[in-house]
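Annex B. Sample input.
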Amino acid sequence: MKTIIRLIACLCLLAGPLAYAQTDTLRYSVRGTVVDAAGGKPLAYVSVTLPGTNYATVTNQDGVFVIKSDTVPRFVSFSLLGYKSQTVPADRDQTMRISLNRGQFTLDPAQVVSGDPLNLLLDAIYKIPKNCPDEAELFECFYRETAQKRQRFIYISEAVTRMYKTPFRTNFGRDRAAVEKSRLLTSPRKSDTLAVKVQGGPTQAVDLDLVKTRMVILNQEDLENYNLELLDPVMLDDRRQFVIRLTPAVTKDYALNNGMIYLDQETLSFTRIELSLDVSDPGKATQAMLVSKPMDIRFRPKEMSILLNYKREDGKSRLSYVRTVFRFNCDARKRLFNTEYTAIAEMVVTNRITGEAVEPIDRKEAFRSDYILADKTQAYFDPDFWKDYNIIEPTESLENAIDHLRKQQ
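Annex B, continued. Sample output.
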């Protein structure tokens, strides 16, 4: 695998300029919690949209969401892999509680879900131009990047970004992301000045759109490295999905992945991609994950995973959510014990902009793939910082961490 997003581990956190931008005030909001109907368990990463608008977000790990609009919301829609989609009247007067039921469907006895998974994937790749937008598009996104030392947060970096995408029939070289507004909270402890950063930050909305770039997995050369298995179908947005599991079939001089790919059975559009780097060979995994580190620090890879969700609207499939997880151990060579670090980056598309407002992002304005968001942002503590934007609501643990870091400043 030719790794796209990587770590710069164990470097001192820096502060830089803060970017501002104006947006139309989102005066109306709906908030609530989404749970499993059977057991009441909060459901994370549920897609939340306002029908009739392009506004969207996802639930956090506590199942909590807040979605804002410039017009009075009438309905709210919810969808999650394996669950029956639901659209309910919006209630702006109180916190909503939405219960999703597991998606169930039966197959006709004469219908057998079968097929060669490689041919299914190749057909899906061939149909990408048909299933994806044929016009340039502009999106508003929210990006959050966190790092934990053991269970304690040591930095939180967030940004509202713009993402420009060229038509899928053209080269993605002009696809770019730009930071509109960002903030940074860091631990002031001297022991935390060695930290982890994710290289590329908000550009993952561009670089990790594997359906567009086809740089990993979704090309003939990479697919030849994997065993493919067709699993039982599942439901997403009340539509049946092919499920294809990938496992390494050969040994390469770089780390391969384990993964799952979900395809809409009717259109063969990509709906979800899950990849997890094979870390059984620490040397190969380190080469894939790490950009640089101090000489006296030992790096032990534990996990690098990627989740991509695609949403189908107006007959076209678009990237709607990205989540990457890096987990590793680091220690100084003279120390007896090592420390576990976890870096999580996630991005959700919160609005799709259409019409004359769709303009390319200038190269000088673009956030580059070798940039680090923490180096481009300064600390900021305004409680209404995200007032006019849709964001991923912080979990309770993250809210507590933000309050704690503020008090330490």
